Amino acid sequence: MLGSWQAKLVNRIEDSTVRTLKMQRDCVDFSSNDYLGLARNPLFQGDLMSIVLKYPSALKGATGSRLISGNTRTQEEVETFLAQRYGVESALLMSSGYIANLSLVSSLALRGDTILVDELIHRSVHDGCQMSAATKWKFRHQDLNHLESLLKKARGQIWVLVESIYSMDGDYAPLADLIDLTEAYGANLIVDEAHAVGVYGNGLVYEQGLMSRVFATVITFGKAMGFHGAAVLASQELNDYLVNFASPIIYSTGNSDLMALSIQAAYQFIDKNPTLREQLQQRIMYFNSHLKRTDRKVLFSAIQPVIIPELNKLKSTAEELERAGLSVYPVMPPTVPVNTGRLRICLHTHNSFDEIDRLTTIIKEYL
Ligand SMILES: Cc1ncc(COP(=O)(O)O)c(C=O)c1O
């Protein structure tokens, strides 16, 4: 008799949704989050190498939780750099975006509070909700009327969580409208900028001049910034609170200085190379014009979902793309809702127009 966890795995194998780890391959990259190509850019790698040569001690581990032995001047200096860049009181570095969301939600939302999340919010937010004693309600994706109907019923402190660019759909949140609505109900809005940082300058909240009107933003550095790590941008009071009450920060080894310095180097690199963003936008427009896609919600997005609800067809499309040397990730339920399995196509500065032609030619056969 199989234990229930084993039965779950067998179910996945039987319904063809099992996931396996695949080695990075030398394929044309239409699947990574390395939108600006920093992770593969030899010049950026050179900058990282210079950091290591200049500060070899940056390579060492933090040696303990940041609250015990893991805090350093370098990390605080990079936090000051981030806070100044974004015009906020405080930036708190975290080991990843997952940990940042987990820290915020699990520590802030207390018993009697209400958490309102877009139904397509990242898993890390849901996991944070599970660690919290607050009530969680989901609102329909990007549906502000539905959000308002829940705001009317919410109790305690209200926490609203959205992404500025949704990771599986690539669409943008109507940030100004969300802010007006949450302000009207005295709710605290937290925006996850994981897929906007770098692709849209400092991120959409910043670029739209809205930093002072959100409770906090989460920025991450494992995607367009080509490295890893994250930061919470907020008031000093909030970040003081996180250091005191967020278990994922308190009970875990801190970060290396290399992470902090690499993040700073990534911002300096994209400042020096403004054409990277332009190159990316050209490729996005080229892709959309070839597939005659006109949906305004994803017109300028580096994430372009192509929905193929039938799972076998989705898989065979991905396999054919792979045989053609193109790496595209098929995303299946439960990562996305049932009947919305999709190719999650990510466009990058390093994709040539010829590669995009090859991609769209195959996709057209399956649509
Ligand atoms: C919207 C969103 N938030 C947070 C994360 C987690 O960020 P990280 O990869 O830095 O843990 C991701 C990554 O998958 C994401 O897509």
SS field, number of helical segments: 14
Main sheet overview: 7 strands, mixed
CATH class of the largest domain: Alpha Beta
**Looking at the structure, what is the overall shape?**
globular
Placed side by side, the strands forming the largest sheet appear as 2-8-7-6-5-3-4
Q: What is the CATH architecture annotation of the largest domain?
A: 3-Layer(aba) Sandwich
Radius of gyration: 21 Å
Q: How do the helices and strands follow one another from N- to C-terminus? A: HEHHEHEHEHEHEHEEHHHHEHEEEH
N/C terminus separation: 43 Å
Count of individual beta strands: 12
Please tell me the total number of domains: 2
Could you list the spans in which at least 5 consecutive residues all have pLDDT below 50? none
Average per-residue pLDDT, rounded, comes to: 95
Helix content: 40-55%
Summed up, what is this model?
The protein contains 14 helices and twelve strands. It is an alpha/beta fold. Helix 2 crosses helix 11 and helix 12 packs parallel to helix 14.
